[in-house]
Amino acid sequence: MGNSYAGQLKTTRFEEVLHNSIEASLRSNSLVPRPVFSQLYLEAEQQLSSLEAGSRVDNEEEEEEEEEEEEGSESSSPPIAYQMKPPPEGCCTTDGFCQAGKDLRLVSISNEQIEVPSGFLLVGAKSPNLPDHLLVCAVDKRFLPDDQGRNALLGFSGNCVGCNKKGFCYFTEFSNHINLKMTTQPKKQKHLKYYLVRNAQGTLTKGSAICWKGAEFRSRRSSSIARSNTLFQPPENTSSSVAIVNEPVLAAHPIVQAGTHQMVSDHLPSTVCYPVYNGKDSPQQHSVKSNLSSVTRPSVLGTLTNSGPPKKRHKGWSPESPSSNEAWHLQPNPQITNRNKNEGGGGLSCLPHAAMVGPVSSPVVASGEPVSVPDNLLKIYKAKPVIFKGHGNFPYLCGNLNDVIISPLLYTCYKNSQSLSRAYEQYGASTIQPISDEMQLLLTVYYLVQLASDQVPLIEDLEQIFMRSWRESHLSEIRQYQQAVPQAFPQVPGPIAPVTSAQLPWLAGLAASSCNDSVHIIECSYSLAEGLSEMFKMLIEGKLLKTNYVVIICACRNRTIDSCIAVIGKYQARILSESMLTPTEYQKEVGYELVTGKVDALGAFFSTLCPDGDVDVLLDKFYQENRGHISPSLPASVNKPVTLDITGTAMCTSYNLERHQIRPFQLAVAQKLLSHVCSIADSSTQNLDLGSFEKVDFLICVPPSEVTYQQTLFHLWHSGVLLELGLEKEHLTKQRVEQYVVKLDTEAQTKFKTFLQNSMQNPHTLFVLIHDHAHWDLVSAVHSLYPQSDPAVSLVDRLLNCREVKEAPNIVTLHVTSFPYALQTQHTRISPYNEIHWPSLYNNGADLYHESKKYYGLSEFIESTLSGHSLPLLRYDSSFEAMVMALGKRFPRLHSAVIRTFVLVQHYSAAMMAVCGLSQMKNYTTVETLEITQNLINSSRQCPSGHGLMVVLRIPCIPLAAVAYERLNHVRERLALEDHFEIILGNPSSGITVGKHFVEQLKIWQKIEDAEWSPQTYLELEGLPCILIFSGMDPQGESLPRSLRYCDLRLINSSCLVRTTLEQELGLAAYFVSSETSTEKVVTNDVLESDPEKLSSTDNEDEETVTEGSTSEKRSPVKRERSGSHDSAASSVSSKTSSTAFCSETSPPSVTAGDTGKSTHQILSSGTEESVNNPEKQRPKMDKDSKSNAKAAQASITSSSASPFSSSSASSVPTHSSFVLQVPQCSMTKVSQQPPMVYLPKLVYDVITSADSTGLPKSSSLLPYHSVMWASSFRPLMSKMMTCTEQSLYYRQWTVPKPIHMDYNNRNEGRMDTFHPRRLLLSGPPQIGKTGAYLQFLSILSRMLIRLTEVDVYDEEEINTDLKEESAQYYHQPGDVWPDLETMKKIPFDYTIYDPKYEDASLICSRILIKNEDRSANRKQEDLYMRRQTTRMRLSKYAAYNTYHHCEQCHQYMGFNPRYQLYESTLHAFAFSYSMLGEEIQLHFIIPKSQEHHFVFSHPGRQLESMRLPLVTDKSQDYIKSPTFTPTTGRHEHGLFNLYHAMDGASHLHVLVVKEYEMAIYKKYWPNHIMLVLPSIFNSAGVGAAHFLIKELSYHNLELERNRQEELGIKPQDIWPFIVISDDSCVMWNAVEIDCSGERKSEYTWTERNISLKQILQHIESTPNVTHYALIGMRKWSSKTKSGEIKEPFSCCHIHDFVMLNVDLTQNVQYNQNRFMCDDVDFNLRAHSAGLLICQFNRFSVMKKQIAVGGQRSFHIKSKVSDNPVSITPAQYICAPDSKHTFLAAPAQLLLEKYLQYHSHRFFPLSLKNYSHPVLSVDCYLNLGPQIAICYVSSRPHSLNVSCSDMIFSGLLLYLCDSFVVASFLKKFHFLKGATLCVICQDRNSLRQTVVRLELEDEWQFRLRDEFQTANAKEDKPLFFLTGRHI
């Protein structure tokens, strides 16, 4: 079938193509023209003219040559090198020329007139040296075959067309003459390839291939002489049911007998003999080099390709050449078919015939006479025809209905394609005619013609053909609506002429004429009944043996056509009929055949195969003969694992179980899961309130597989998650772990009910419901088709989708699966935003995440089959397939699963016997099975500890698995191999049973002490040599160990082609290999696979360089014949002899036929005959192995604790390299470095390895899951470039669930959104570590919840406590609740700053400091920038929150409510004049509707008039009297503005003070908060400006309120004058409770507790005479607070962070609007000097949260010139005036403050560390850094100042001094000699005026160079400095 010709859509119109086709057929003597379809609808990857359609790609021709060359090498003896006769002296030897020097190349002489004698034909010969050319020869046509590949005379007669030399009677002689230069015996069949014909222009061109006998067998047209027929049927005798061929024919290596070699076609893959008609390119065109990865565009035929790759697939075969060996009905369309009979309302079912016959169940009305089905149809024809209803009426059938199957599938497909135009109309296209019935049928015929004899039609291919044909014919109308489907087709000018019903039969016949009768057309006159009757008659008479498809057409002119298509090919009919069975029906059918003894005939047939009689007799004979010689146990090295003793005996270092460890990928996925959960919580939908949860609990649901259940328990135990989540205590028991994993079986409901009860009882626990292997059992509880006797079915729907889970606000459901497609339909419950996909492994993922291992999944397995890879990991066994196909024809009533299983078990049995010395049994197995068995048995002997390989034999049907288990066990027992390897039956419903001997071995390897231990998971079988028979219809999440070497999937149900089904079967083999190892290198030297005889059949010559055992093959005394079928991707490529690596003593022997007589024991213990051929080559390999062994030894991990899950690990002692050198390499070493080999059914192999034009594997475009269906035939194609997210969106758009699917009823029930908000989906490739990822997710989720309930608060000791004066007396009693006004007036103001945030600020001196130590000496310079000390505190219920907090109580407060739109708010301007600024200030308020009651508006225009203020006399406890103002910048998300809980729900007025440019973002995050927007001139201002405007606005508002309320009769002094100015990081508030119940008054105890801000404010507001206090504050919290600090309950000192400000008393004291830092200290000093009372409540404290963003950090000082982020040091913040210094883009005041903080010592050198001589600062406090002290004085008259008479100052700082500062004031103070002065003014002019006005030059000396400015440009208004020295 291999010659594929994918034609480009020609621009020729239909009539022209048809005309050319007919003309070509008339011109041709023996050919039929290329079908019209090929020219119209198949695209080509090469531009071939329509008349050169026969030209084939030369690669393919090479391929055929190679195949034929191999025929020689596959005979029973090695090929003999061919010696060519030397050419005569002086003759031409140039390739392409004859010896006479004449050019024979077709390209050169195609236009020349060549004389062709009568009876001769021109043919093209291929020269191996000129692969791109054909050589023209004239050959007598009697020696060439006819169209059937027959009747060619032996011998040869030919002429040279170059020199006209005639009469060559031997092809050898002729090949010498035309310089073919052969290395093997020339054969005409090998080199004469094509007929040559002249085209319309008279040019000689390549015509069709010459149909030699071998090529005929490769033809995909021939069905009767297909590969399997040649083995089991005599050529022209089908009536006989007796096996004509002698016994060995059934063997995998049949002995070719004289006279029958023409029959044995298995040496040749099915390649095509009609290149012109195939409509496809050769697979070779799509090799890697050309980067063309597919044969056809995906939209046409999907895949139509060769039945098998050529043998030398490593050299050129591209496995991407697709195949359509898929069952036609397998991918039903939406309305097409549901597999289940009883399904309601989901379209028509593909049911067995009985259910579908008659008008009731048929969509097509039957008419006319009934058609009788012959009684003995199945008996005679050996197959049940499958009849697909097509167009029009279908007749009644009567009679033997059991022998036919009728399906409406094709009818539905036709109907769907008719609806394409309606689908387009939705996109706005005008009405477009649908594709006609005639065209549909014609295209169907063309499609069937394309199919090979071993291919099965696929409905999706047909859909795509219809789609493409229709679109091309209406391209002009729909081109503008192409957005829906990507442009994938070339453009066609003009519509295609319609086909009339009269033309249809003739055109269909014309198309079918090219296919060697594979498609037979029957034309009826009146109804389909006559055609069906004729077909049945022909079937009975044996006239349709070559035919696979019968197309019956009834085309009457007066009405529409009737049609049906019967699939009568035995192989196709079997596949189609079997795939119509549901999984339940399939199991029932197989069970029935086993129970009723139908299979006995098959068993009897097998037993006759052995030449020595019954196989069991042979086994018993062997057992009896060898019973005495067989030692009762294995050799010591196998039976007792060796450990390293003192003498240094060798031991195996390859075995180390990996402990639970999180890989980088898993951590990344866990973090992605966490971020998705957080995004659900952060959304405004209020679906998840993470802040309300304190801990995490979970339940993991797994399928009802005991192994998966135990495996999950094992992972859970070792992950430590239960301890980390605090769910369990240290001493875990297995019973406790089992509470967290539920197996979805009948007992699941109890555990689940407990889980639901727990979730209801613990609302503050977040429950995570994990549904692992989530694609399993998606059956709807409502539409369950299964009887309720099986309560486990639909459990997922009943439990996980129950109302309690949906509605519980504290349950998050996480679906985890490798195959998420069934959960991605139009009705899915999972939002696309809640899908988490495993990170791509291809975007250098290993580098991104530093993975130490490489993952091998489906794509890597497929990639390994591409040419250029030394070892394909996916293979198929064509010998096995051929036998199955032949037996299928022999036993038509048996299900193919039964036949396949029996054949494979027979092969394994024969292979075991062959390995044990019964070498004659090698002929009764296949090379692949023999390799598997040999390596399995030999593996344990290569390891001193007896480690071996695992072989997984997948048998889905449980009864068949049991039969296989019993049979293999019996054979193993008779061969005395019980101790060599175990056979384990893996049944999902039960645990693992392992023999006692092997359990003991596992316990030793895994260092397990527990006497009762036995393995419960497959992972615990690591290193055990075993065959694991893996049963169950679907794998259920079981993981396999690293010792897995072969994954035998030859028995999977290949008729069920569904993406999930295929991928999960292949997922069993998914594997991690160490990424340090080069897989290619390891594999090519595979020591395990030690069958030297197989080297002869290795056809990958490239690898012979590494194969040193080939000579031993020649010494083998008896040769077996090579099977003709190793199309399984070079099954023996990896088969190297044991001699490759080891010396003969330790090398495992290869059992050859000569060993037959020896006992098993002798064979197993003997060494191979001289197996080291090249010791030099071997040495480096051994060194490498020794290194890897040593490395493995060092890497072994010692166990930490024992557990019921075999937690102990294999800790290995590293051995000295000299010992390691002598240890045979353990199979475990190599196995862990390479992924397993996978053997597939041929049909599945072709689907998996074929690809579309984008490179997407064919399997990806299959229907994703059996309980979903396509929403429409009108859908775009998937693309290889699609990400997982795009694939998900594709399936969400184009698939719908069937009624049996649990999401079927999840439709829009009046809601916009069908997604469940707390449901997530994690998908990732199989076996990649999803379990570890979600367990890690639970862990970090728990940590995050704890973290969410905690906050980092500053916890620092007070500074400068050593300067605090010890007061002799206490002014208040410890128990006093409120301060006494008179007492407070007596308390002196404490100038010292104690707040730790001012650790770097200048000390304020109130007296002469005697101590003169360096305050900063104990801190390094870099400590200044260190992170401040914090502690983690649990949030109390009275905390302030940021925007991430959502809870039920504060919904309305926050203004987020899903039922309403965001709160409306209005913008109000508010202007007031400020005399000191001399201008009007305009502010804007943003006031939400819900907050308008706090304000007063004018009645007519609703102008904002004032903010309401309460009365001093109000005593209500319901609200807070003081409005709270919070200035903030850069903290819209993180600022703690949610005071709802802090205020304990009390009514309060809270205003956020924001800069104009941040208004929008704050409004978005805090829609229900009042905003005060500062004027734009303050956008770059500091916190001083905000404080200044808050205070001035509040005073102005107080005046307005006094005026307003005075009219209501209220006194002005009764209006509440206080406001609160709070930082945006105040998180919690604490109160100290004093217990003074001690005996003496001075004794007391105290405790601190968290209280609400409401309590604190109401307490302070209740203070007696509160209006007499100007500032009230509280302590900053610290865990290090000493009792002395709170002994005095009230202090008069600096207050920070949270200030209650009396705006009335402080009317004349302003905040400095220019300040960025220390503005509160500056204000405190000025308020105190104005004689105002400041009171700190020491019993109250505020906690401040550490917030990493915003605040002061938002000011970045950078250069104004360049945008480059060059770091600028504080020394560059000032410069000399008029200099060329780089100007900075920062406010001048900020530059000044920063410069003085770090470099003030340049201005005040004498002040440095001179605390007894501070700097005198007048009317302001500026931070000069921690090493300089300051003395603050106020110049205002009557102000309170410290006594300075005794002080001598080291400097004077005059900052923007006003008119109160006069010369006489300054002359009161004394300065050191050399003291420095710094005057700071707004400009240079005022600088000079100040110097003059204050008479500074009298005492201070100034120099010109002592003038500076901040590094600002002129427009930025720099500040100017002048410094001077005291004279």
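The record above closes out task 2.4. Task 2.5 opens with a second protein, given below.
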Amino acid sequence: MGNGLFASCCQSFADLLFWVQGEDSSGERSPLLSTSSAVAHDSPPQTPAKMGVSEALWLLYPDIIPSSAQLEYPQGREEVDRDFSGGNRGEKTSKSSPDSCQLLSVAGLLRPALGSCAAAVLLADLEEESTPPLNYSQPRRACLVCVTPKILGSGFEVTEQAEIPGSNDRGDTGSEFPASSSQCQKGLMPGKAANPGPALEDRRVVACDSQASSAFGFGNRDGSKLPNEPECGPPGKRSQIVEEISLYDEDKGACGLSLDPSTGTEEPPSSITLMNGDGLHEDHKEEPRQNGLEEPDHAEDGNDQEVIVIQDTGFTVKIHAPTVEPFPLQVSPQEMVQEIHQVLMDREDTCHRTCFSLQLDGNVLDNFAELKTIEGLQEGSVLKVVEEPYTVREARIHVRHIRDLLKSLDPSDAFNGVDCNSLSFLSVFNDGDLGDSGKRKKKGIEMEQIDCTPPEHILPGGKERPLCPLQPQNKDWKPLQCLKVLTMSGWNPPPGNRKMHGDLMYLYVITVEDRHVSITASTRGFYLNQSTAYNFNPKPASPSFLSHSLVELLNQISPTFKRNFAALQKKRVQRHPLERISTPFQVYSWTAPLAEHVMDCVRAEDAYTSRLGYEEHIPGQTRDWNEELQTTRELPRKNLPERLLRERAIFKVHSDFTAAATRGAMAVIDGNVMAINPSEETKMQMFIWNNIFFSLGFDVRDHYKDFGGDVAAYVAPTNDLNGVRTYNAVDVEGLYTLGTVVVDYRGYRVTAQSIIPGILEREQEQSVIYGSIDFGKTIVSHPKYLELLEKTSRPLKIQKHKVLNDKNEEVELCSSVECKGIIGNDGRHYILDLLRTFPPDLNFLPVEGEELLEECQKMGLPKEHRHKLCCLRQELVDAFVEHRYLMFMKLAALQLMQQKASKQGSPAPLGNGNSGSPTSSFPENGVEDSETFPLEDAKLEDGPLEDNVTGLDQVKELTETIASDDGAVDPKSREVIQNACKAVGSISNTSFDIRFNPDIFSPGVRFPESSKEQIQDQKRLLKDAAAFLVSYQIPGLVKDCLDHTMLPMDGGTLTEAMHQRGINMRYLGKVVDFITKTPARTQLDHIYKIGIMELITRSAKHIFKTYLQGVELSGLSAAISHFLNCFLSSFPNPVAHLPADELVSKKKNKRRKNRNLSSADNTAWSSTSPQELWKNICLEAKSYFDFSLECESADQAVEVYSLQKITLLREISLKTGIQVLLKEYNFDNRHKPTFTEEDILNIFPVVKHVNPKASDAFHFFQSGQAKVQQGFLKEGSELISEALNLFNNVYGAMHMEIVACLRLLARLNYIMGDYSEALSNQQKAVLMSERVLGIEHPNTIQEYMHLALYCFANSQLSTALNLLYRARYLMLLVFGDDHPEMALLDNNIGLVLHGVMEYDLSLRFLENALVINSKYHGAKSLKVALSHHLVARVYESKAEFRSALQQEKEGYTIYKQQLGDHHEKTKESSEYLKYLTQQAVALQRTMNEIYKNGSSANIMPLKFTAPSMASILEQLNIINGILFIPLSPKDLENLKAEVQRRHQLQEAKSGDQEAEDRVAEVEPSPPLAAAP
């Protein structure tokens, strides 16, 4: 890991290393602030205690100022009268009361308002949280109000007030988007600052440069890391190639953004003219940056910097609520009164109140006012909770809230996949052991109390794979019953005469004691009336028990309710906040226990009232999704607060849209939505619901006739979605895409899109002003679209080109012809139908007269695919361009050096002249290195390495000069660049620029004669790209798997790994074939097995899709269970149970043939047999993946490929959305089928959508990773903490990128010696991974392993074992035991068992790990040597010295072979062997003595070593890839001196610099500077 010394250090060392400034230190003022700084010092500057984040930030972002000066900021909020909708669209602002719930706010950036459901997070929980999670819990169902985000860990102010549209003092609200708060907010709750004390963290000035381009993505979606791999930048965003060439320059920041040592700015690589624009902004000017203080006007549009003062001046107020003791509450001035409401509605003792106001000295506080704007509110103020009269709306909110409190521990919503609830089981395994932020409740290790016996089914060698332990019964779920029934009464709504008495609604309750009561909700509260189920008598009963809250009323009439409700609330507030917050996107569980169905008035109301209005942001109207989605994109993004606010708004609206679209798509397929063209045939119907447009994935009107008909229509939506994702990532201002979600449900594919304003009023022909509606016959273009699309062409590598329309006129396009441009009635430029954004994949698109390169032909390509819409993935295009860039640089450098060497000779020609193909003279696609000398050999032939680097630098300089059209370039050098450009297929001959024409080989598209040559070049480029995939990417993937840098565990992670390298899933057969031909085939056994499993389940999924389309709703569970029986059961002839009323339904069908999506014959599915299904699976695998499966039944597949049926069940369920009953299935019973109808509980949608990114947070995260890699742990962890705060701002508290952040943070805490903090962070990572990714996702398994390690370090041994056992069980279920990751798991388990002296058990696991390691790493690898050593240690503890010696000898041999005699490891092993030999001899002597002298023997005491915890922990660290390097005091002294020397040097420099030009330039601060 980069700088080894640093990587090793523990806490004490870290403190010493990161130099502490004294009071009189000359470094207290920032070198960035010149003497005439525009900063007003209100108070004497305070000296920061440590130099930490600020310096790290400072290196990353050009203008981050580590200053202690506090900047002034304008008090009061700016009045902004601009309408939110992005400009003056002419609406007048109208007055509205904040309570009217008209507060839409920044398009869905929303928070629960007064009287919404339970708030998500408790104050008490947050006092331990390092970052208060934002409330994500109730994005739906509540009247919501906007708050701007909390930044960098504490509230902040903006010197230039960030204009947040629509915000002003008076609560005036625009008619479209009402007022929102213009101050950036703290998280949901006031909590303690992460680290109190006068440290730099609490007061620092941060500014951010918006130049950092938005990242295209987190390579591995789950960011998963191998436990023993150094943490490194996510693989997704590839480092610029310049970095590879300059052989990694220490001054580089994250991912190849080179840090200019003189300014510390992040600059795009100087080769920006050559690069194909990985930066997403066109015109990066390389000028020296201003630091944003002296001359703000110079900042350009893209580079506006801002300065934020971060301060945390929280204060405490006292709350007086009725019937509760007064209590203190910590608040922050940036919070709204609203948030105190939330706290009170979540607190155990005040949670039953929803309808109240807060009063200060008798004045009612405005809910949407910020605390700092309230006069007289200060430390110690008393706020009174005053009960307010109810309205119908408030009464309904109250009942909902009480129902939510009653259901707060009930997991049924998570099992049913509703309202973004999901499961988590961590609390079952840690028994609350991790409480008090990781400190164990009872001190000391009670050895004898630890029960270490693992469950039988997880022992190595076990063949049982039970399903029930997947979802263990959580004891909290046995809900304490408070009421039998709480429901709306049938007497609702109150008649007019009762309304005038204040009756709002009636409830009907049956208590646990079986008392039936009717309750009236009136304006004054709740009371008993005299009605019964059949007689209406609304008069109050006597006594009526009038109470303001329903809970108080029920407490009086039911003692059981009183007791159980109190107990329930106690349990509710004890749960970890992350168990309660809802996730941003719904996660579905593929198994669930059988739950009894209980009465639930709210659920019933939601199902049968128009559930559209349930988004109560704007009562009385549905949300205009398109307007919200587009308006959030138009939010300003000049500085960090604006960008955070914008990204948060985009993410929030997007997750709401995805939820609404999913619900709508299910309603469409279930037949609950009326079509807009009801007279057409079912397949052609289209639907509008909730302002979302739905269409089915069938080829309507022969649109896709030339492309593959229905098959093409089925894949088009996902291609389109990928296009939308890419254009959104490029994020060009003024270019708009539609909100798009693709839902697969019950065998149908539904595309949900937001609606372009005005599109429904006119014909498509009139609306399209760019592109073609008939696949290239009529084509139109438009200058504005060309201008906008040209901005995207560089990052997307799309070539501007001309095509001919049906009149033979040339039309210029900058996209594929199918891409349509429509200007909506709102004046925005929309692009849609982005299904051919990327170039075609020639390997699956045979074209007459076109030959592919030899590598492809060897693999049996091109192969005819089912449709002609096969495209290359964006990752592949990027990798290919990067590969070509490397080639370009090497070619040019080679030539320049040849020139230099010969001085007189002209450059050697690059092409061989006759063929013109770069691959003929430079076979860069060849696999053998001998062929590819000029391109692949990094060491160019001339001279030592340094020369090569200078050669490459020369090339960079040269291309820049040529690009700037400077006549001063020597013609020979120009020729070198031209030759190199030609050889790599660049479209420009002065700089490197590769782009693709997406219309090449598109049926029906014709090109003008003039561009004939260009088209030939493009065709060649496409063939090269196809060959690159086969000859570089597939071998690369397999090599990564061999090196264990990629460790897929199931189909999902394998898919991700392939996609990351740009390999489409249709290549799966080729990948599996390639593995079978690899020499190290056995070491790839696990990948082979996953590949086969994926082939089988994907083929089965294709068949299942068409199978389900023929099933009507009443036969769904029978049909699914029949399919699963045919697919997995050993029972030879399962018979389908047809629905009982089969005859009736057939008759009905003849009458309504048109109306049902299914075909007329609804029973065809019942005749499927296992033989037929497996035959079809094999045919499908052959025709789709070109792979021959050798199995005719499930049993044969299991035998031939050693698969597990339970794993196949999991894979098929996840892919198709099936949910099965949680029970033990007997797959091998030959006498009765495995599944019955009752085993199929549900079928869920499988949803694909765009996942918006938090770009600033992502850059911080990457930079933190880069720092950690270079060994700067402290800065790294501070940067990652900042990233965590920013992620929380954008995503709320739950997101998979936050999981990666928490995992890395925990690892750093651990390495730096803060075990309890590591435990706390990792616990959050596990909970979040379970909830966001799924309880048995491979990522969750790894999180469990890390958590177990930190538990062990915190002396929580039994918890550590439970967690490891859980991880092993999940691993067995998801894959089986023959996986390299299992070796790591077993080593961990074995070591912990060794530590608790369970030697025999320990041996079982360690020996299993040894076997697996030998298989996957080779018998002679160092991992195997370590395994031998671990086994030897256990034998030693058992006093079986002979076995111990044997094992250690094996290890010693490996060390000696691999590392030589003088290596430390070899010596250690040798010492240990000597020690074992002595022990063995001593033991033998003693035994002989006993034989000889019997009981009178004189026995020497033998040393049996029980292992020490420290030694076990040391071994655990080693196997988990965490190494500590011990440093001697002398090393420390040297380091300290070095650090101080550098600091003085830097001080001197920055002094000179300041004096010179008054413009501060950033020098690397001492701890960050790379070693010379």
